[in-house]
Amino acid sequence: MLDHDAHHATACAECDLLIEEVPVTSGCNLLCPRCGHVIREGRPDSVVNALILSTTGLILFIPAIGLPLLSMSVLGLHKEASLIESVLALSRDGYWQVSLVVFISAALAPFFNLWLMFTTSLAIFLRSPPTGLRFLLRVNHHAREWAMTEVFFLGVLVSVVKLKDMATLLPGWGLFCFLCLMLISILINSTIDEHELWDSLDDARA
After folding, report:
1. Statement to judge: residues 24 and 65 lie in one domain
2. How is residue 6 annotated by DSSP?
3. CA distance 155 to 177
4. 103 with 159, same domain?
5. From CA 45, how far away is CA 26, in angstroms rounded?
6. What letter would DSSP give residue 7?
7. Do residues 58 and 118 lie in contact, with contact meaning Cβ atoms separated by under 8 Å?
8. Among the ranges given (35-44, 146-155, 180-189), the one the predictor scored with the smallest mean pLDDT
9. Is the same domain home to 24 and 119?
10. Pick from 13, 195, 176, 156: nearest CA to 72
11. How far is Cα 73 from Cα 152, in angstroms, rounded to an integer?
12. Helix (DSSP H) and strand (DSSP E) numbers for the chain
């Protein structure tokens, strides 16, 4: 039978050892005493960082998907394409499965992740968490697994390499915005401690 502190315990993802959680300072890690797996990393100010990064990401989202990513000139013809236009072009050409995957991984899931992170961090920061905030945190944990902005950006770079000898390619503002959006997504995943968000949520409710 677990003691009264069991609700502050966590299980190691590698060996399932139940460990009592302790505060982790910046630059330190909580390790499993049995297998040495890193259970929690010290990432302070996660609520403030999440609010700043998600707000910036939401501001950049519309230009990232709506402005032209690349402009191509070949034989006097000039063509520009944004992320949304690329998705629609794939669908019109019969590749609707590919267009759906691109839309979900490069647009829908990143936006959903940013919106959920903004909503949860703002509610915790204002100390007025709504009833369904715990559910949003759980959904956000799975939503960010579908956000693959770096994969789409890599695909754009591959296209540039393959087409550079056949046409003149110039980056558009949409590509720069999308690059910033990708970096923000990476920063959110690397600097935000979900455990601190959960602890802050409990403190706000108390």
Report:
1. no
2. G
3. 16
4. yes
5. 10
6. G
7. yes
8. 35-44
9. no
10. 156
11. 22
12. 8, 7
